[in-house]
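Structure ticket #2291
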Amino acid sequence: MKNIVVLISGGGTNLQSIIDGCKNGTIHGRITGVISSSRHAYGLTRAKNAGIETKVISKYKYPIDADREAALLDALNEFQADIIVLAGYLSILPKEIIAAYRNRIVNIHPSLIPSFCGDGFYGLHVHEKVLEYGAKVSGATVHFVDEGTDTGPIILQKSVPVMDDDTPEALQQRVLVVEHELLPRAVELLCTDCIKVDGRKVILKEEGEGK
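Resolution: structure written out below.
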């Protein structure tokens, strides 16, 4: 089984979807640790309720960037991370960690990349911008993390309709349903070695095809 480490900053609903997947057997991996950038994140409670070890590595606790980055790397090593999942994680990963875990770090973004992504596009702000633009569809994207912001190779995407009477909050909830579907699926594909990366193209293999 692959060791999964989940990084969070908030409520942790996407974390919960992975916890549930590991519990019900749809994800053939185990969460060895949850790391939060905020001690107030409710996701820490979700992890503790599931018996998962947690660590808080915040700017408050580690005000010096180098110290915070070293603590994060130490935690990933301690949890013996094979796969790193950013589930609403609002901090920037150091380039050293991205390089060390190339094509083993995934992120979930609440839009159809390359639309409504990049610097400043996170949380409810994404859905506000979708509605301001008048887009007819939105959705969610799971992608590998590289040195850019939301620029890594795309693993999975799924669209949802934008309704004429949508509020940002209503659209957010509709997209969240898709996030909870896509992220566990992407994690399972990684756990079963069913992903091949060829440049920017991600090729998904059926389970049993081998590496």
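Closing remark: Strands lie at 2-8, 29-36, 54-56, 83-86, 105-109, 137-144, 154-161, 195-198, 201-204.
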